[in-house]
Amino acid sequence: MGKGVAGGLQRVMHFFLPKEEDFFELFEAMAVKAHEGAGVLQRMLHGEAPAASFVEPIAVIEHAVDELNHDCVKRLKETFVTPIMFDRQDILALADDLDEIVDQTRATVDRMALYRPKTIPSGAVDLGDILVECTKALAEACGQLHAMRSADQGVIKAVNALENRGDQIVKQGLADLFEHEGDAVEVLKWKELYDHIEEAIDCCEDAVQTIEAALVKNS
User: Fold this and answer.
1) CA nearest 202: which of 97, 106, 109, 108?
2) Is 212 part of any domain?
3) 4 lies in a domain?
């Protein structure tokens, strides 16, 4: 670093400029937690244990992601100049998307424990598996942000494809419910549960689209 007036200015700018990696690390940590949360839901949907046993684990994950999100917002408020790749809106959008994935996952787990549906449709199991795949791909994407320089990323295409598969599973799952489930209360339960899982998957797509948009702006 230089000396004199120029060196002093350089040191001041170095102090105020944000470390892009700090935000990337927060995004990756949130995405990894989202993947962990999806795994909790997946185990519930596969019937590995009573639904009530998954309530506490998902709550711990959701609280951890809330803290990471708050930390991200706090760092952003203390930052005078945003990182090169993401502007302020991008940072807030991606953090909110990651947070919402876990919120929707927890909502599914909590309602499963509360509603205690009689059976778990195969469509719901498949949708839970899709969420696990989506969050895994998203965690990989967030782990690679420091090296991304192009919007043409395989992981972005993968999440988009998974979201499309999820849409088809939801449509077929609801059709099967309306056709074969004679208990209207069970239909209502699963209609809401499907909605929450689908929203979690949609938020995964929103997150990768935020990343894609940031890459396009900086390409």
Assistant:
1) 97
2) yes
3) no
